[in-house]
Amino acid sequence: MRFGLLGPLQVTDSEGEEIRIGRPKLRLLLAVLLTHANTPVPLDRLMDMLWEHDPPESASFNVRTYIWTLRGLLSPTGQPETPISTDSRGYMIELGSEQLDSAMFEQLVSCGVDSCRQGEMSAAVDQLTKALGLWRGPAYQDIPHVAEPLVAAVRRLEERRLTAVEHLCDAWFSMGMYAEAVEELWEWVRRYPLRERLTEQLMVALHQVNRSAEALSAFGRLRSHLVEQTGMEPGSPLQALQRRILQSDTEPVSPVRTGLTSHRSNGRFDPKQLPPDVTTFIGRVKELAKLNTMLGARRLGQQGLVIIIHGPAGAGKSALAVHIGSMWAERFVDGQLYVNLQDAPPGMEPSKSIQVLGRFLRALGVSAGHVPPDAEEAAVLFRSIVAGREMLILLDNAADEGRVRSLLPGTSCTVVLVTSRTRLTGLCDVAAELQIDPLCPEDARAMLELHIGNVKTDVDVADLARLADLCEYLPVALQAAASRLNARPGWPMRCLIDRLADDRRRLDELAAGNVALRQSLKASYEVLRQSDHPDDDLAMRAACLISLATDGYVSTKDMASLLDVTLAEGDRAVQRLLDVYLLEAAGADHYRMNSLVRGFARELVNDALDIVGGCRTSRSRDLSRDHRG
After folding, report:
1. Kind of pairing, strands 10-12 and 84-87?
2. Which sequence positions fall in the DNA-binding region (predicted)?
3. Among 100, 115, 296, 567, fewest CB within 10 Å belongs to which?
4. pLDDT in tens, 132-172
């Protein structure tokens, strides 16, 4: 059985006969399941997507009825088998990539882009041509797009389609097949009149087949559209291309942009520094939809964007940033820069601005001897080089606003993604923000299953739920737990659960290789320790006292009593712990410190008793009670 989303919804059986899915709600439900193929979709999420977050009282019953109907339509005649399964996590359609055209398309495009980068242009042409041939019309053409995840999926597929077209033309250019590129590009430029890269490629192809007047006309049409709709002129690369054509330059006027090296033939460097994407990325549907909306709303070549992704230690901020960056990387034709601002040998200060600027400038082609030693001068040079470029910069693990601000590219059209364990409120004037929390229980269990599926084939659902709970649904902790289980194939899951149940050893158990939650928590605590603000010293003491004196739940009044300070001072301590995600809101004036943070804070007490030297032990014991209220 095969399914198609690259056009009207299409379902064909093993004989090639089409199975008609007539009712709109059934088509929408099937499209949702196909979009999340091989991943369980919880019932409540299906209801939200089918009724746009306003499901009727009968929604649960209706979804079950729709699933029953779909199973009947998709089951071979006289056979009970169906690709749709259900368990405690939700409903799932199980497919191989060859059964879903959008999955085949993604696979072929990835292979084609890789072939381009490796210089295998003939293979790239074959793969990308096959990928584009899978499209029968606009993606999800006859699906009512009431669900934002589907809108995001459509947008992403369209972007990947354009990426495939652009790489195919680059491959043709490298093989001298400019006439073929002209034929392909005319229609795409007509459909996307504001996409400068397509017009640039069309101008190159036309110029190389001695149709320079038409190339200049294409530039004029693009400029008219841009000025009329945005008030902006074409970007500097396109204007430079126009000048070269006007000068009757007979050399190839544009380099192929798909090589593995970052150096262009015209002396410019296009670095490709993003870390590898997480191949087992799970969940974050709403967050990805919001990020796609932010990036999609930005007009190519017209404006920059700064997005801060903040959340607790171990929540997967870096993985999310790399994932969305990889999804959009091909859009940023002038390269990507990356730095881990927390990356430093033990005992040394995290990367300083001048060090990061030096790395960025060298990656952009500035020789080491010409990098200014002064941070301000280096920042000015960096902004000058990046101005007018379409780049993506990922500033990972930022601890303070000042260091981030010094690395921002000014008026460039570059997008900057920042991840941080603190809220970085000082950047609210220049940045949009996205807060991420621990995974939902369903996604946490799905992540565990994905990581341990090859080792643990018979997993008890209750044990899986308990393990996810002990990991506080944090991806870093879940990954560490899965690694521990994979390293001991004969080890029952219950054995690790029993070990993690002892909160005194939980952080030790949640360490595997380079994955250690304790290091992430330490980085959050360092934000307070390295601060000179008196509220941060109070917040450090508060963290330790909460871990000793309560079950993790406190109010502002409890905090003031623990610290023996005024209510206002207690509230400021609470706010600082919230800012660095060592505390989380748990209701009106009630706050929770999760079990992993409490374990880390107790370690601090044992290692440095002077931090809580002034506390009153009797008062701490009196406050050791449940404040869930």
Report:
1. unpaired
2. 1-95
3. 567
4. 999 999 999 988 765 666 887 888 888 889 989 988 998 89
C-alpha of 216 from chain center = 39
Label each residue of 55-75 as H, E or C.
Answer: CCCCHHHHHHHHHHHHHHHHC
Do the Cβ atoms of 248 and 216 come closer than 8 Å?
no
Question: Do 425 and 462 sit in the same domain of this protein?
Answer: no
What is the secondary structure of 68-132 as a DSSP string? HHHHHHHSPTT----SEEEETTEEEE---GGGBHHHHHHHHHHHHHHHHHTT-HHHHHHHHHHHH
Same domain, 164 and 231: yes
How many secondary structure helices (H) and strands (E) does the chain include?
Answer: 26, 14
pLDDT at 250 over 80: no
How far apart are alpha carbons 451 and 380 in whole angstroms?
45
**199 close to 189: Cβ distance less than 8 angstroms:** yes
User: How many domains does the chain fold into?
Assistant: 5
Residue 264 lies in a domain: no
Rg from Cα positions in the chain? 27
Angle between helices 517-529 and 534-549 (to 10 degrees): 140
SS3 (DSSP) at 3? strand
Q: Hey, which residues does 417 pair with through a beta bridge?
A: 307, 394
Band of the pLDDT at 458, cuts 50, 70, 90?
Answer: low
Question: Domain containing 384 — which CATH number?
Answer: 3.40.50.300
Instruction: With CA atoms as reference, report the closest residue to 421 among 335, 349, 316.
Output: 316
Residues whose CB falls within 8 Å of the CB of residue 177, separated by 6 or more in sequence, listed in order? none
Given a contact cutoff of 8 angstroms between Cβ atoms, the answer to whether 109 and 131 are in contact is yes
Place of tokens 């291309």: 241
Q: At residue 628, does pLDDT exceed 60?
A: no
The residue assigned the tokens 């400021």 is 572
Q: Do 329 and 418 share a structural domain?
A: yes
**CA gap 171, 112 in Å, rounded:** 9
Q: Which residue has the tokens 């730095």?
A: 339
CA–CA distance, 202 with 193 (Å, rounded to integer) = 12
Domain assignment of residue 453, given as a range: 441-518
pLDDT value of residue 67: 92
Element (H, E) at 511: strand 511-512
Q: Which two tokens stand for residue 323?
A: 């994932």
**Are 308 and 418 contacting, i.e. CB atoms less than 8 angstroms apart?**
yes
Lookup: tokens for 462: 């209750």
- Helical spans, DSSP H, in 424-492: 441-452, 461-470, 475-487
Quick one: which of 364, 363, 321, 326 has its CA closest to 340? 321
pLDDT 10s digits, 510-559: 877 655 688 888 888 888 888 877 788 899 999 999 988 888 899 999 99
Among residues 292, 316, 288, 318, the alpha carbon closest in space to that of 305 is found at 292
Is the Cα dihedral 334, 340, 345, 348 positive or negative?
A: positive
The alpha-helical segments, DSSP class H, found in 276-426 are 285-297, 317-328, 353-363, 375-386, 401-405
Q: Would 36 be classed as within a structural domain?
A: yes
C-beta of residue 208 within 8 angstroms of C-beta of residue 252: yes
The whole-number average pLDDT for the span 409-426 is: 86
